Amino acid sequence: MTDSLWTKPGGSLSHKNASKEYGLTEQDLFTAMRAGTLQFREGSAHGNPYFKLLRMEVEALALELRGAAAMEEQAFQHQLRQIDKAINSHKRKLTALNKQRIALLEAHNKRVSTGENESDAKT
After folding, report:
1. Which DSSP letter does residue 11 get?
2. For the whole model, what pTM was predicted?
3. How many CA atoms lie within 13 A of 102 on its CB side?
4. Cβ(42)–Cβ(51) below 8 Å
5. How many H-runs (helices) and E-runs (strands) does the chain carry?
6. pLDDT digits (tens, 9 = 90+) for 3-60
7. Percent of the chain surpassing pLDDT 90
8. Taking the CA atoms of the chain, what radius of gyration do you get in angstroms?
9. Are the C-beta atoms of 24 and 58 separated by less than 8 Å?
10. CA 98, CA 46: separation in Å to the nearest integer?
């Protein structure tokens, strides 16, 4: 059963993301890993090692260490950060698209005005 949790989308997360998402310190996670409370698998991304943890076990640990109210506040803060991040990403994309639009309109207007001058010269 646990193998399916490791491969299920959203079923596992890195120890770094667990720290950010659940407000746990790396020390909290490492202590629980040594105690056998958290199952883990070792991984590496671009040469950087990390520990992969089961989300449900991290949630249970956070609930035990921090309490329900703190977990709700942490979940709220995490969702708010994710939304702010998405908004800022869309703002950057919108700015880039507006610059492209302006450049396209300027190029078009330049061609149109040059084309009008050529047609005036022919008559």
Report:
1. S
2. 0.65
3. 6
4. yes
5. 5, 3
6. 788 888 889 999 999 998 898 999 999 999 999 999 999 988 899 999 999 999 999 9
7. 69
8. 26
9. yes
10. 35
Residue holding tokens 């059963």?
A: 1
Q: Which residue in 2, 89, 88 sits closest to 41, CA to CA?
A: 2
Please enumerate in sequence order all residues whose Cβ is within 8 A of that of 52, keeping only pairs 6 or more positions apart, or say none.
Answer: 6, 12, 13, 14, 15, 40, 41, 42, 43
From 18, 59, 16, 57, select the one nearest 39 (Cα to Cα).
57
Instruction: Report which DSSP code applies to 38.
Output: S
Angle (deg, nearest 10), helices 15-22 and 55-66: 40
81-119: per-residue pLDDT in tens?
A: 999 999 999 999 999 999 999 999 999 999 988 876 555
Per domain, the residue ranges of the chain are 1-66, 68-123
